[in-house]
Amino acid sequence: MRAFGTEFACPPGYLNTASVGIPPAPVAAAVAESVERWRTGASRPGDFDAYVARSRAGFARLLGVDPGRVAIGASVSQLVANVAAALPAGTRVLAAEGDFTSVTFPFAANGATVTEAPLEALPARVEGHDVVAVSVVQSADGRIVDLPALRAAAEAAGAAVLLDASQAAGWLPLEVAWADWVVAAGYKWLLSPRGSAWLVVRPDAGERTRAVAANWYAGEDPWSTVYGLPLRLAGDARAFDLSPVWLAQVGAAAALEYLGGLDLAAVAAHDVGLADSLRTELGLPPGGTAIVSLDGDPERAAAAGIVSSVRGGRVRVGFHLYNTADDVERVLHAFG
User: Fold this and answer.
1) Fewer CB in a 10 Å sphere around the end CB: N or C, the chain?
2) Do 166 and 64 share a domain, yes or no?
3) 7 part of a folded domain
4) pLDDT averaged over every residue in the chain
5) Which of 215, 242, 260 is the last residue of a domain?
6) GO molecular function, one example (predicted)?
């Protein structure tokens, strides 16, 4: 099918982008070409530097920051660990109840005192905490944190903020450059291969971030830091780079450049429009999010040709670029 200016091989009823996004044809082709070069011995390590630079710049463009503020990695938890490991033991971290554990586990494992609060009450609970760590869009049900209220509360309380944009970046226009740290995985709404992730570090937050997996690629010039001491890391957020997953970065470079050329307001209108039309037909209030959480039998959904996930005992569906009103009708047939 063709959608938003490109081709997708997305089957009808695929509503599982919140787990795994479907790449546009050019993204899949770029990865396939790189696999072929690898298979035939044509690849050289230095060839992949350009893809890393492109993916870094693409993610920076989506979030409205300078590429020098962006570190690359393979997963959210890896990158959050750079933040959690730098905090003194006993640091008071506020998190949302039931948030994805890649956001909360690194803090709990590194000695922080983590307190959970209902998502809607998070801004009101910031006082008395040192850090707030929360997903912009909740993985389980698509609820969106009140970012303006959270920003105001954090600034008033002097608390730092880490945002996980994994379920938001790619469909929701974001203005989050104010946050101390923003992290996201690429394999969901960003339509990139698994093994690509990014961490945005606000300049003044760099000294409160630790390169827990310092490596050759985190050097100012990676090819001059492959051997020997002393420690010599880059002077910007690249100091927190993880050694890149090459094929994932090839796909991410193409995917982020494609997404960067779209009007994200139009993408959000499409995604949320489909999600809210489903909610309306089911007698539910609009949610304003691309993710819908439903009571129902997962086996019945599968029998109707719906690819979805089960989160919190409920069927989770998500609508992205390649979904249509036919997908809404398929869900209504199964649940209506």
Assistant:
1) C
2) yes
3) yes
4) 97
5) 260
6) lyase activity
Cβ-defined contacts of 266-272 (< 8 Å, 24+) = 267/4, 267/170, 267/171, 267/321, 268/171, 268/172, 268/173, 270/4, 270/319, 270/321, 271/171, 271/318, 271/319, 271/320, 271/321, 271/323, 272/319
The answer on 278 and 304 residing in a single domain is yes
Residues 50 and 90 in one domain: yes
Amino acid (one-letter) located at 95? A
Span 138-185, pLDDT tens digits: 999 999 999 999 999 999 999 999 999 999 999 999 999 999 999 999
pLDDT in tens, 287-329: 999 999 999 899 999 999 999 999 999 999 999 999 999 999 9
Round to whole Å and give the CA distance between 300 and 152.
Answer: 44
As for how many domains the chain has, the answer is: 2
**Mean pLDDT lowest among 156-160, 250-254, 261-265, 297-301:** 297-301
d(CA 274, CA 334): 16
Q: Are strands 2-3 and 6-7 parallel, antiparallel or unpaired?
A: antiparallel
The answer to the question of residue 36 being in a domain is no
- Whether residue 149 contacts residue 157, with contact meaning beta carbons closer than 8 Å, is answered with no
CATH number of the domain where residue 14 is located: 3.90.1150.10
Instruction: Say if 273 falls within a structural domain.
Output: yes
Return the DSSP state at 296: S
Confidence of residue 335 (pLDDT cuts 50, 70, 90): confident
Q: Is the dihedral of CA 27, 33, 37, 39 positive or negative?
A: positive
Q: Judge if 252 and 269 occupy the same domain.
A: no
